[in-house]
Amino acid sequence: MSQSIPAPAISPLGQRLIDDMNMRRFSRETQRNYIRDAGRFATFSGRSPDTSTADDLLRFQIEQRATGVPTPTMNSIVSALRFFFTHTLDRPDLARRLIRVAHPRNLPVVLSRDEVARLLNATTCLKHQAALSVAYGAGLRVAEVAALKVGDVDSERMLIRVELGKGGRYRNAMLPADLLTLLREWWKVGHQLGVMHRDGWLFPGQHAMKPISTRQLHRIVVEAAQAAEITKRVGPHTLRHSFAAIAGFLPRHGRNISRSTTRASPRMPASTACTCCVPTAGFHAVCCARVPGTLAGGGDLQVSKVHSRNQADFPSVRRGDRRAAVLLVLRAVAAQGTRRAADRRRRHYGMGR
Question: What residues contact 185, with CB distance under 8 A and at least 6 apart?
Fold first, then answer.
């Protein structure tokens, strides 16, 4: 007769940490990491963290550096301990003693258009090809792909609705025409096999009532890359980076505009006309941009109209300005959305402030 294994007891301090994270709606993975990192420090100090001193924190970080803990791991531990000491223990004086280590950020691995085509063609079934195509064509994260439902695909507005993405945010992603065709083919096949339902998951797992796991998607990408003889280190997020690189994200005022909530797809329709508001240097312009040809195919991006508060103070957006047109297209994807979504985008870019 099997006996159930009792769950480990949680200390009152640990329960306070969990309550603080639940109040802020931290994800399960973040809570697991913060509890683990707080436990590391408690084990190192040998006493309850609420009696810790600044010397304990310094010795802890020195010991981590001496044992060769990677810099990103050290910084994630700093984030966990700062939250723990600031919110749970109400000791911001100790949180300020934690040092975040600077480290060089390498450019992410990206795939060329030819490598992406080989990767997608190397998949073993239509479901896998469709899932990876969504990750690449819409620029979604692996967890967002796994959590998609059939009803999230809006063929009328050519959008993919992402619910509870990173940070618990909702957003709309671009749905290219050829990706919609592929998803419709997958719907026909999956419906015939009895694994696809109108209210079900877009990519069901082994059980039709559960979605495909992120680990399975990672395995699919790795196996497809090996079959396609791609020597780069490839994962599901590589497709998102490749989407961003081919879409032509450009730096703006020292920042990368990959923070945009709507992004241009490398497989846009042959001709796309967009109208949107672009904030630049504290001013806002309402412009019209037209994209003859595909964005990935090097089509010319042109601005046809410019209306600004003060044209003399807005020299960066003018007729024929390619860079401004790129900014326009990247922000005008899904311009046919609802009024509420449009207002949300304007507030995001400062129009409502």
Answer: 126, 130
Mean pLDDT of 117-145: 93
DSSP 8-state code for residue 261 = S
**Residue closest to 14 by CA, chosen among 103, 89, 124:** 89
Model pLDDT, residue 342: 53
The model carries a pTM of 0.61
Residue 247: the pLDDT is 61
Question: What is the helix (H) or strand (E) element at residue 195, kind and residue range?
Answer: none
CATH numeric code, 12-95: 1.10.150.130
User: What is the DSSP secondary-structure string of 138-179?
Assistant: S---HHHHHT-BGGGEETTTTEEEE-S-GGG--EEEE--HHH
Helix (H, G, I), strand (E, B) or coil at 36: helix
The DSSP string of 110-130 is ---HHHHHHHHHT-SSHHHHH
Contacts of 289 (CB under 8 A, 6+ apart): 273, 274, 275, 276, 301, 302, 303, 304, 325, 328, 329, 332
CATH fold label, 113-246: hpI Integrase; Chain A (1.10.443)
Domain assignments of the chain as residue spans, ordered by start: 12-95, 113-246, 266-348
Instruction: Give the side-chain half-sphere CA count within 13 A for 116.
Output: 24
Strand 271-280 to strand 171-174: parallel, antiparallel, or no bridges (unpaired)?
A: unpaired
